[in-house]
Write a structure and sequence with these properties.
One of its GO terms (biological process) is regulation of DNA-templated transcription. This is Toxin-antitoxin system HicB family antitoxin. InterPro entries: Ribbon_hlx_hlx. The radius of gyration is 20 Å and the shape is elongated. It contains three helices and no strands. The N and C termini lie far apart (about 45 Å). It is mainly α and about 70 residues long. It has one domain.
Amino acid sequence: MAMISVQLPDELHVRLVEAVAGDQMSLNAALVEAAEAWLEHAERRAVSRKLLQEALSDDPELRALLGDD
């Protein structure tokens, strides 16, 4: 498992510590969960972007309508 060092603004750190204490989880677990959620979101955006590009490349009328011609 990789170990990293992350610099957080003090206010964000305080908010995270308070939030994880309320959920009875570690700060590390919360950050891992947040990183996983961010990656899943980024992967979904990439798929959506690819599908949109494919749709635009297949439809010249749609490209013209969107001003992408």
